[in-house]
From TrEMBL:
One of its GO terms (molecular function) is DNA binding. It comes from Allostreptomyces psammosilenae. Transmembrane segments: none annotated. This is Transcriptional regulator with XRE-family HTH domain. PROSITE patterns: HTH_CROC1. It holds the Pfam family HTH_31. InterPro entries: Cro/C1-type_HTH (IPR001387), Lambda_DNA-bd_dom_sf (IPR010982), MLTR_LBD (IPR041413).
Amino acid sequence: MDATQELATFLRSRRERLDPRDLGLPSRRQARRTPGLRREEVAELAGISVDYVVRLEQGRGLRPSADVVEALARALRLTPVERAYLFNLAQQRPRNADQPATTAPPPLARLVADLSPLPAMLLNHRYDILAWNREMTRLLLDFGTLPPPRRNSMWLCLMHPRIRELYVDRERVVREGIAHLRAAWAAHPEDRVLTDLIAELAGRDEQFARLWAERDIEVNGRGRKVMRHPDVGVFAVHFEVLVPLHDPDQRLVVFRAADDESRSALDRLCGR
């Protein structure tokens, strides 16, 4: 399959499936020879020239800009999945991404609760903590007692006195978190809140500034952390990071005890 030809075919197929009446377009006396919208109508809805639409649908090797792809996606009433497919075919990335979630979608919030007795929480790409269950509050802290701007696991790891002392191998944990944060920053350059968070951490924490300057990039989906908890002592957990298909910028983090001794410690910590 050739991406240019697939782009052309995909645009034609999405144009032909639309009913002009559903878009409020005026009816025409002349019968339509093809189903769906005319190229002229797509061009008008997208704010681009008819000739450009023709060349795209003929697969003449054009690479539309991100703005043009976004305009075509709106004109053709593409679903979010179709929109992402169109951007991928055009080898472009949306310039104006949707605002990052600041609250958990209800189905994901329920899933976090249902994962008990495993400690679980939901993060967005900035590491903002959107949802958590009871076990996670026992393991880390009660995030509900914090103001929303401070419900960020990277900020807590660096700035909160309890979390700062929690990880036995703190250097590695911080390094991995910063490598993820740099990857998120590159994927979301328009996110001013993320940029401001990075600037704050770099200005207030020497370790963050030093590791950020090393420019390590990593997205770690699973691993092991050793914790020194003030109530139950040292234990280890395995963590798994899952990405919801409908919310790809969010991360579901689940902890499991790494061994029998750690499981016993977690049971005592969570009152089981």
